[in-house]
């Protein structure tokens, strides 16, 4: 029952906060202006990430109180939202924010979970009869790599209405179910709080979107999903259970692999924004935004079901 309350509270919080931040963004001219690379044709208010951050943090605090994972999410997420808002402010003036300040913040934020004892500690054989424990340095490195990757992957797929928020709903519900199976109450609650927040935001973000989450929201979602996965299935994973969070986040992983492969083949910088993402390709093939998002939701759901099946097989 507590999970239903957390889901409902996070949904209501974000549902009520989004119109406030949307009105503020319009008043301040804080909007994402159309460019050749983007699919929207008119300026759309940014700052939706602030509402998602508030929904997740407030719900987690009310149900879990002060805890290590709350501090990790509040501190790391707050820094990502802050730098994301700066990046979004550049977008509102049709300018590009330099990559290096973002990169430094992303790396610094990716170190925060390890500082609070939330890290990928080791890996065990499928039978769990023996476990290889990582040294503190390697544990911090693998944790940093995972968190940094997810921060960027969710940011990459936030290119059309409702994609990042919808995929995050599916991924967070999957991590919620995985946590219930593993009897991990704290991780389960964060998963459902994130799902409720993203679901409420999706009401405003589905095509035609009335607000975007911006980099502030997309990077926070990636960070929260990464930390939730570490606190759940990745702390001491088996070789096979590594597939659970990877499949739960299958669409961002798949899109990143495809985009990076294309950029390498075309000799482009890996960090350069372009229209080589999966959703861009699907739309060039004739699909509408709604059809594209629906298709990618379906792929995400299939990946998520596979991850749950694997987890059940391992028990």
Automatic annotation (TrEMBL):
<dbReference type="GO" id="GO:0005886">
    <property type="term" value="C:plasma membrane"/>
</dbReference>
<feature type="transmembrane region" description="Helical">
    <location>
        <begin position="293"/>
        <end position="314"/>
    </location>
</feature>
<protein>
    <submittedName>
        <fullName>Undecaprenyl/decaprenyl-phosphate alpha-N-acetylglucosaminyl 1-phosphate transferase</fullName>
    </submittedName>
</protein>
<keyword id="KW-0812">Transmembrane</keyword>
<feature type="transmembrane region" description="Helical">
    <location>
        <begin position="129"/>
        <end position="151"/>
    </location>
</feature>
<feature type="transmembrane region" description="Helical">
    <location>
        <begin position="236"/>
        <end position="260"/>
    </location>
</feature>
<feature type="binding site">
    <location>
        <position position="215"/>
    </location>
    <ligand>
        <name>Mg(2+)</name>
    </ligand>
</feature>
<feature type="binding site">
    <location>
        <position position="155"/>
    </location>
    <ligand>
        <name>Mg(2+)</name>
    </ligand>
</feature>
<feature type="transmembrane region" description="Helical">
    <location>
        <begin position="99"/>
        <end position="123"/>
    </location>
</feature>
<feature type="transmembrane region" description="Helical">
    <location>
        <begin position="46"/>
        <end position="63"/>
    </location>
</feature>
<dbReference type="GO" id="GO:0046872">
    <property type="term" value="F:metal ion binding"/>
</dbReference>
<feature type="transmembrane region" description="Helical">
    <location>
        <begin position="6"/>
        <end position="25"/>
    </location>
</feature>
<dbReference type="InterPro" id="IPR000715">
    <property type="entry name" value="Glycosyl_transferase_4"/>
</dbReference>
<dbReference type="GO" id="GO:0009103">
    <property type="term" value="P:lipopolysaccharide biosynthetic process"/>
</dbReference>
<keyword id="KW-1133">Transmembrane helix</keyword>
<dbReference type="GO" id="GO:0016780">
    <property type="term" value="F:phosphotransferase activity, for other substituted phosphate groups"/>
</dbReference>
<feature type="transmembrane region" description="Helical">
    <location>
        <begin position="163"/>
        <end position="181"/>
    </location>
</feature>
<keyword id="KW-0460">Magnesium</keyword>
<keyword id="KW-0472">Membrane</keyword>
<dbReference type="Pfam" id="PF00953">
    <property type="entry name" value="Glycos_transf_4"/>
</dbReference>
<keyword id="KW-1003">Cell membrane</keyword>
<keyword id="KW-0808">Transferase</keyword>
<keyword id="KW-0479">Metal-binding</keyword>
<feature type="transmembrane region" description="Helical">
    <location>
        <begin position="69"/>
        <end position="87"/>
    </location>
</feature>
<feature type="transmembrane region" description="Helical">
    <location>
        <begin position="211"/>
        <end position="230"/>
    </location>
</feature>
<dbReference type="GO" id="GO:0071555">
    <property type="term" value="P:cell wall organization"/>
</dbReference>
<dbReference type="InterPro" id="IPR018480">
    <property type="entry name" value="PNAcMuramoyl-5peptid_Trfase_CS"/>
</dbReference>
<dbReference type="GO" id="GO:0044038">
    <property type="term" value="P:cell wall macromolecule biosynthetic process"/>
</dbReference>
<feature type="transmembrane region" description="Helical">
    <location>
        <begin position="187"/>
        <end position="204"/>
    </location>
</feature>
């Amino acid at each position: 029952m507590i999970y239903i309350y957390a889901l409902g509270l996070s949904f209501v919080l974000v549902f009520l906060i989004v119109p406030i931040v949307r009105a503020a963004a319009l008043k301040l001219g804080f909007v994402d202006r159309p460019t050749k690379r983007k699919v929207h044709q008119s300026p759309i208010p940014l700052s939706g990430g602030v509402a998602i951050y508030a929904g997740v943090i407030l719900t987690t605090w009310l149900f879990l109180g002060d805890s290590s994972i709350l501090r990790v999410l509040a501190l790391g997420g707050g820094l990502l939202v802050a730098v994301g808002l700066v990046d979004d402010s550049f977008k509102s003036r049709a300018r590009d924010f330099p990559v290096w300040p973002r990169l430094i913040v992303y790396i610094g934020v990716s170190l925060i979970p390890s500082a609070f004892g939330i890290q990928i500690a080791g890996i065990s054989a499928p039978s769990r009869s023996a476990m290889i424990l990582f040294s503190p340095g390697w544990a911090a490195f693998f944790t940093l790599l995972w968190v940094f990757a997810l921060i960027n992957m969710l940011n990459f797929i936030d290119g059309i209405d409702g994609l990042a928020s919808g995929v995050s709903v599916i991924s967070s519900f999957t991590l919620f179910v995985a946590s219930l199976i593993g009897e991990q109450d704290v991780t389960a609650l964060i998963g459902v709080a994130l799902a409720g927040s993203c679901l409420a935001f999706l009401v405003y973000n589905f095509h035609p979107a009335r607000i975007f989450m911006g980099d502030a929201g997309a990077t926070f979602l990636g960070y929260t999903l990464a930390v939730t996965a570490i606190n759940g299935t990745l702390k001491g994973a088996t070789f096979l259970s590594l597939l659970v969070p990877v499949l739960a986040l299958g669409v961002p992983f798949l899109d990143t692999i495809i985009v990076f492969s294309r950029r390498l083949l075309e000799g482009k910088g890996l960090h350069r924004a372009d229209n080589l993402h999966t959703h861009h390709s699907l739309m060039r093939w004739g699909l509408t935004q709604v059809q594209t998002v629906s298709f990618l939701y379906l792929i995400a759901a299939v990946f998520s079901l596979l991850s749950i099946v694997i987890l059940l097989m391992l028990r």
